[in-house]
Design a protein that fits this description.
It is built from 3 helices and 8 strands; from the N terminus they run ββαβαβαββββ. By secondary structure, it is of the alpha+beta class. It folds into 2 domains: 49 residues, no CATH class; 92 residues, Roll (Nuclear Transport Factor 2, Chain: A).
Length: 143
């Protein structure tokens, strides 16, 4: 459930997110959002998956570097991988999720409460002979 507030003509994430989380039954759940609610999520007995944004440039860069090294020699790094392929409306989209628990390769992983793993989603789209790649990075409190 997205929560937004408005101000100065801009959309921004609400500072009320921890208050909202306090009203929800989260124990045993997995919650996805940004870092603002991390501690509130963990205090409620839930786990988090956080989309990594460029507002954490050192962590983002360390994940990008790690993934580039991984792609060069994937057999040398323990990981889990899942793939889905969708064909629709003249396009083929292949999504691969790579999950890792090599936290020592990240920049200051101790800054993230209960961090246990991280993942990279690789989205490859083929439309009319043109292929694009997009990467999204996530951190998680579960393996």
């Amino acid at each position: 459930m997205p929560v937004w507030c408005s101000g100065s003509g801009q959309r921004r994430r609400s500072p009320a997110i921890p208050e909202l989380l306090a009203t929800l039954a989260l124990e045993g759940c997995i919650v996805t959002l940004d870092a603002m609610g991390t501690q509130a999520i963990r205090n409620r007995g839930a786990d988090y998956i956080l989309a990594l944004r460029d507002n954490q440039p050192n962590l983002a860069d360390s994940m990008r570097d790690f993934f580039a090294r991984f792609k060069a020699a994937p057999d040398r790094t323990p990981h889990a991988m899942s793939e889905t392929v969708e064909k629709d409306h003249g396009r083929i989209e292949t999504r691969r999720c790579y999950a890792f628990d090599q936290l020592a390769c990240l920049h200051q992983p101790e800054q993230w409460p209960d961090l246990k793993s991280f993942a990279v989603i690789e989205s490859q789209r083929e439309i009319r002979g043109r292929t694009t790649l997009e990467y999204r990075y996530y951190s998680a409190s579960r393996n």
